Amino acid sequence: MSLTPRWIYAFIVVCCSALLAYALYTQYFDGLHPCPLCITQRAFFVLTALVALIALITNPHQNGRYVSAGLMLVTTIAGGSVAYRQVWLQSLPPDQVPACGPSLEYMFSNLPFGEAFRTLMLGDGNCAEIVWTLFGFSMPNWSLFAFIGLGAAAIVSALPMLKR
Q: Residues 88, 101: contact at Cβ < 8 Å?
């Protein structure tokens, strides 16, 4: 069994699915309510998985592999940027943390879409709270590591030396 782009696409789909499943587990069984940045990161994991799933199904030739890898890189860089922002917010001294904002339901029903989307992308004081750690790293840290690994897998999937 040799490493092929399809195996890498399947790996990316499985990883994203597992990450999303764990996020939903912590939300519904551990009671950890996601902040706006957490929800945004979840959306980028979904987008990454969708691109990988489409590539897995279509099994593109070399140019298609470049396109698939490029799209996955865009989603992983965007998701990693959001995760990095949350890690940065969590590292701020308490007096520099931005104020907590309203709930997402309130924002999207009462604020203009642009302002609600901006808050979703930039986060608020809720995003600076550390409520879960593993080996000393918060969930956004692990999310950032995952986006980096998924981006690296996307790059490897486009290497010309891999057999289709």
A: no
* Residue 104 zone, left/alpha/beta (φ > 0; ψ -120 to 50; rest): alpha
3-state secondary structure 21-80: HHHHHHHHCCCCCCCHHHHHHHHHHHHHHHHHHHHHHHCCCHHHHHHHHHHHHHHHHHHH
Put simply, whether the predicted model's pTM sits higher than 0.90 gets the answer no
Query: Residue 48 has which token pair?
Result: 């990454």
- DSSP conformational letter for 150: H
Integer Cα distance of 18 and 126 in angstroms = 25
Q: Which of 73, 91, 35 shows the shortest CA–CA distance to 154?
A: 73
Burial class from Cβ neighbours inside 10 Å (0-12, 13-18, 19+) for residue 74 reads: middle
Phi/psi for 33 (5° steps) reads -85, 130
13-58 pLDDT, tens digit per residue, is 999 999 999 999 999 999 888 888 888 999 999 999 999 999 999 9
Q: Which residues contact 64 (CB under 8 A, 6 or more apart)?
A: 55, 58
User: CATH number of the domain at 5-157, please?
Assistant: 1.20.1550.10
CB atoms within 10 A of CB 105: 8
